[in-house]
Structure formats: C-alpha cells, structure tokens
Design brief:
Length: 280
C-alpha cells in the first residue's frame, strides 16, 4: 500500500522520484476560506459589529418618525401604519448600503496590501471577489434580522405575511443585496480611489431609493417621478419584499426582482473579474 508521501511522487527523466508540484486547493475551498476570513474580520471587531447593527436601526427610526405623516395619505390606510409600509423598503435600503460597503471593503484591502498578497498565491482571483460578496451577504443577514426584531419590538412593525412571508422577503433581500454587491465591487475594481468610490456610491443610492416606491406610494408621486420609478429596478424589489412581508399581492414583482438581481450579479461579476485581472 502506498504511503501518502509516495503518492505525491512522480518519476523524472533520470528514473528518480521528484515531488509533484502543488496545484492549490479547489475553488469551493478557496471561497470558503476567504469568506470565513472576511467574516472573522467583520465580527471580530466589537465596534464594527455595534455600529453595523445600529446603523439600520437608527435609519429605520429616523425615517419612520420624519415621514410618519405619509401614513395618512390616500392609499396608505391598508398598511395600518407607516412603519409597515416603510420596513420592507428599509430592508432593501440596508441591502444597498451593505453592497456599497463591499466596494469600499475591497478598496481598503487593496490599499492595505491584502489583495496584493492574494495575487501571489495559487488561488483564483474570482474566488477573492466571490468571497467578498458572500461574506457581506452574511453580514447583511445579521443586520436584517436585528432590524426586523427592533422594528417589531420598538416601532410596532406587524408583518401580515407571517414567519413564512418574512423569511422569503428576507431571502429576496439577500439575493438583491448580493447582486448589488457585485455592482459596487465592479466599480471598486474600476475606480480604485476611495473618494471617487464614495461619490459614485451616494450618487447611485439616493436617486435609486427616492425615485422608487420606498417611501411614498406611487400614486402620490408626480407623473414624471412615477414614470422613472417604473423603470427603477429597486421598485420591483421593494414591491415584492413589501408584498411578501405584509401578505399583500405583488404580481410579477418577485419574478422581476429575482431576475434583475441575477442579471445584475452576472454583469457586475463579469466586469469585476475583467477589471481585477487587468489591474494585477
């Protein structure tokens, strides 16, 4: 029976045994190791954990109080309170903010030399990017659960969709956040400057959120904003999340939201990998 060592030996041209060159681990192992590494870094700093959990809760608290009067507008009576209308939109908002942090995190690791060390290792560059998006999606899941619990305990959020509807809404938000994460990772591999990255991120975030059905019912918006919102992909993600969480009809919004998120992930991933290889 051959030993583990002898199984790694090959015969060279002189009839002698030489060690077989190590070809590295497989892609799933690389992604797992890199993802857990990012998660340890994210949850190993108690200050990052605290502010990461507080950020969406404070965001929800501010929006629910500042825009509370919107709950009295025509078409809002069926939601039984503005917090029920706002919470699903806040989930998508948190997903977008976490996606922005994916790009910022990749840039930070580039500046600190972590990415440079990864490039010297026998690993796939795609695994580095995929692990970044997966670890941030896991972090997003923790933020969403914390926000939902705070919304129900403190602000009176009552999801009519029950546990099943809330769970599916949460999963949909994770898919949307993962797709958006690829977009900001692609932007980070293209711009490579933190200041420019921040400017582009906020430039994308505010128009997308405020031109969607996040904070106002579409019927209460000006006609041109309503038209823009129908072209805004976040509108479908918010409508589907809202319908699932509240147990309301959502039509084809769920199918469109998932399809748009997957297309966004594929396009963002292709651009990110191409830019990442060119800048090596």
């Amino acid at each position: 029976m051959s030993s583990p060592v002898s199984s790694k030996l090959v015969t060279n041209g002189h009839g002698r045994h030489a060690p077989r060159s190590w070809t590295g681990s497989g892609l799933p192992t690389q992604v797992w190791v890199l993802t857990t590494r990012s998660l340890r870094a994210a949850f190993g700093d108690y200050r990052l954990v605290f502010f990461g959990l507080m950020q969406p809760v404070v965001l929800l608290l501010l929006f629910s109080q500042v825009f509370e009067s919107i709950g009295s507008l025509p078409g809002m009576s069926g939601y039984d309170g503005y917090i029920n209308f706002l919470m699903p939109a806040t989930m998508i908002n948190i997903a977008m903010i976490t996606a922005m942090s994916s790009g910022a995190g990749l840039l930070a690791e580039t500046y600190t030399g972590v990415i440079g060390r990864f490039r010297t290792m026998p690993i796939s560059l795609f695994s580095v990017l995929l692990a970044r998006t997966l670890s941030d999606t896991a972090r997003l899941a923790v933020q969403l659960v914390a926000t939902l619990v705070a919304g129900m305990l403190v602000l009176g959020f009552r999801p009519g969709g029950g546990p099943f509807g809330v769970t599916v809404a949460l999963l949909l938000t994770l898919v949307v956040g993962w797709g958006l994460g690829w977009v900001f990772v692609a932007i980070a591999t293209w711009l490579r400057k933190a200041e420019t990255m921040q400017a582009v991120s906020f430039f994308a975030m505010f128009p997308l959120m405020f031109s969607s059905s996040a904070y106002m019912p579409l019927d209460a918006m000006p006609t041109w904003v309503r038209t823009v919102s129908m072209l805004n992909p976040l509108t479908y993600a918010i409508d589907a999340t809202r319908g699932l969480a509240l147990g309301r009809p959502f039509g084809s919004a769920l199918l469109l939201a998932v399809a748009l998120a997957l297309v966004t992930a594929m396009l963002g991933g292709a651009l990110a990998v191409r830019n990442f290889r060119r800048t090596g």
